[in-house]
Write a structure and sequence with these properties.
The chain contains eight helices and five strands. It is of the alpha/beta class and 194 residues long. The two termini are 18 Å apart. The structure holds BIS(adenosine)-5'-pentaphosphate. The site of BIS(adenosine)-5'-pentaphosphate has 29 residues, from helix 1, helix 2, helix 3, helix 6 and helix 8.
Length: 194
């Protein structure tokens, strides 16, 4: 099993590159943002609670997200591995993920951190907001999301760096070029299936 964390601030390309990685390496994609938006769209109790945080650009409480991830991992016993996109976002989440994977006799092998200048992030997300229908793609909420990233999520990069698992990737280049660099790093662990 090979487990990858695709890390980076809002708009750095985690979702875009996850799609390419999942297809190329036959991995299972777990995006907490997508899972939460699905709960919101189905108006579940979890979704109603999560929406309050998401609409303000704040992180949803750890226990909610960790519970969601746990059941997703349990439901994918036959997977070749996972791409975690937008998770973990706090040190508590990172430690919980380590425990969940240890229980399955596996671990996080690699963390690829997409590095993109802040002006580019804002421009990408404002631009996406025109068509996405995402209620958190407004300039005010984007600024709050980036602030939350610096405050709570950046320490997760330090956590993985201490464990020798972090690689920083230039994410400001076109999608295909960035993917080539990501693939070069993944190929050290896993061969492409396509
Ligand atoms: P989430 O859905 O995870 O959003 P995010 O991390 O804020 O960022 P995005 O998904 O919007 O950006 P991305 O990095 O995936 O970039 P993308 O590929 O889409 O989280 C949303 C909310 O849910 C959070 O604010 C929080 O409330 C909650 N949440 C989620 N996970 C949580 C957790 N673990 N704990 C607590 N709360 C959680 O690209 C963005 C745009 O740029 C697209 O239009 C794309 O086409 C474009 N683009 C991509 N790459 C390039 C490129 N190389 N060049 C030019 N344009 C590009």
């Amino acid at each position: 099993m090979f487990n990858l964390v695709l890390f980076g601030p809002p708009g750095s390309g985690k979702g875009t590159q996850s799609e390419n990685i999942v297809k190329t390496y036959d991995l299972r994609h777990i995006s907490t943002g997508d899972l939460l938006r699905d709960e919101v769209s189905r108006n579940t109790a979890l979704g109603v609670e999560a929406k309050k945080y998401m609409n303000q650009g704040m992180l949803v409480p750890d226990e909610v997200v960790i519970g969601m991830i746990s059941s997703k991992i349990d439901g994918s016993a036959d997977a070749r591995g996972f791409v975690f996109d937008g998770f973990p976002r706090t040190r508590t989440q990172a430690e919980a993920l380590d425990k969940l994977l240890e229980f399955k006799n596996t671990e996080i092998h690699l963390v690829l951190s997409l590095e993109v200048p802040e002006n580019d992030l804002i421009a990408r997300l404002v631009n996406r907001g025109v068509t996405s229908g995402r209620s958190d793609d407004t300039e005010e909420v984007i600024t709050a999301r980036i602030k939350e990233y610096h405050l709570k999520t950046e320490p997760v990069a330090r956590y993985y760096n201490e464990h020798g698992k972090l690689e920083r990737i230039a994410g400001h280049l076109p999608v295909a070029e960035t993917f080539k660099t990501l693939a070069k790093n993944i190929n050290k662990y896993l061969l492409p299936v396509t």
